[in-house]
Write a structure and sequence with these properties.
The protein is of the alpha/beta class and 381 residues long. The strands form two sheets. Strands 3-2-1-4-5-6-7 form a seven-stranded parallel β-sheet, with helices on both faces. Strands 10-9-8-11-12-13 form a six-stranded parallel β-sheet, with helices on both faces.
Length: 381
């Protein structure tokens, strides 16, 4: 089968990683696969090296950008249309909002160049990102594009339910396919890097270290990270990531008197090794499709304390592999982390079960099997 994946950018994040892992597994199964990805904006780190490591062919399309730009967007549609007419793939599989829009418009203009069109919602910007007027516009666009899509994939039941609630598509047109990763390759040797990474972070052997990874953006509520750690005396917070809210995070840390207990690493390429430095992992997000960092932390044996946002509950089993709290509940998040700080045996118990369950739920083989079934279904029509 000939497959083209289109994604806005191969930046550090769960969507890009899952696309590259899926493409690599599809190539191992004998499919002809190309990943088309756009420009990575300043301030974001690249994950293109993972595509190289996994021997996944990818084409960087400069006109495909994250920001709205009529000129660039039209150029991206034109380039994708030419690509589809040249390669004539069996399936065009788009990912993320911008690539989903430009890719599906290009498919319409290319005629029957792709025999089937699939779009994956790795999350969505239908609520919580923009003002109500812009959200209504995005919903209208996605409803229109859904008619040009043979199958929509959601990475969690919660994402699917949101798509139905916002009337993007009927439930019978949506398949839920959870992420899959080679978790042994990603985090299998995390524990072996514990001393090395804690030394890099300036942490001694007995300090309780809370980890976080991602983009310092409003939807992740990073200021709640600072507020939470401020309530846990002697704990350290290590942030692997960067973004627009970094100055606000640093300012609040100074204001609350915890700047000396927070280390911001910026983006790191060896994230898998950094999980070994943590005793617990914290997520404070307002929305998540399926938090890959939580999957990886648990796979590395690190219990996760997280807000009950979007698909997080499909990853963290409350009271079994970690704890969930309402969005914005800083006191409860801090209380759960303090409980873990004071009970190493509990940490080990939750982490061990988490490592087992993540490998059961989030395997690359299972994800590729389910995506293959989606392709087969739409191509039979």
């Amino acid at each position: 089968m000939k497959i083209v994946h289109a994604i806005a950018r191969l930046n550090v994040g769960g969507a890009a990683l899952s696309v590259v892992e899926l493409a690599a597994e599809q190539r191992r199964r004998g499919h002809d696969v190309l990943v088309v990805a756009g420009t990575i904006p300043p301030g974001e780190a690249s994950m293109e090296h993972v595509a190289v490591e996994l021997d996944v062919p990818y084409l960087r399309l400069a006109a495909l950008t994250r920001e709205l730009s009529p000129r660039d967007d039209l150029a991206a549609v034109s380039s994708l249309r030419r690509l589809l007419r040249t390669r004539r793939p069996d399936v065009l599989h788009t990912h993320t909002s911008k690539a989903g829009t430009t890719g599906r418009v290009a498919a319409l203009l290319a005629g029957r160049a792709p025999r089937g069109v699939v779009h994956t919602f790795h999350g969505h910007v239908l609520s919580g990102y923009f003002d109500p007027r812009r959200e209504r516009v995005f919903r209208l666009i996605e409803r229109g594009l859904a008619h040009a899509t043979d199958r929509i994939v959601a990475v969690s039941e919660q994402v699917r339910d949101d798509l139905v609630r916002f009337r993007i598509a009927p439930p019978e047109k949506i398949s839920v396919v959870q992420y899959g990763f080679d978790l042994d390759a990603r985090v299998g040797d995390a524990a072996a890097h514990r001393a090395e990474k804690r030394k890099e972070a300036g942490v001694d052997g007995d300090t309780f270290v809370v980890g976080w990874a991602g983009r310092l953006a409003e939807i992740k509520r990073p200021l709640d990270l600072v507020r939470t750690i401020a309530e846990i005396p002697d704990a350290r917070l290590v942030i692997a990531g960067d973004g627009d809210l970094r100055p606000a995070v640093e300012s609040l840390a100074v204001e609350l008197g915890v700047a000396d207990r927070i280390e911001i690493l910026g983006y790191v390429e060896d994230m898998g090794a950094w999980y070994g430095a943590f005793d617990a992992f914290l997520l404070t997000s307002a929305n998540e499709g399926a938090p890959v960092v939580a999957i990886e932390a648990l796979a590395a044996g690190i219990p996760v304390v997280a807000t009950d946002a979007g698909g997080t509950r499909n990853v963290v089993d409350d009271g079994e592999t970690g704890y969930l709290a309402p969005i914005g509940s800083v006191n409860l998040l801090a209380s759960r982390l303090s409980q873990l700080r004071d009970d190493p045996e509990l940490r080990a118990q939750l982490g061990s079960l988490g490592a087992e369950r993540m490998r059961e739920r989030f395997s690359t083989t299972r994800m590729a099997d389910e995506i293959d079934a989606v392709y087969a279904q739409i191509l039979r029509r």
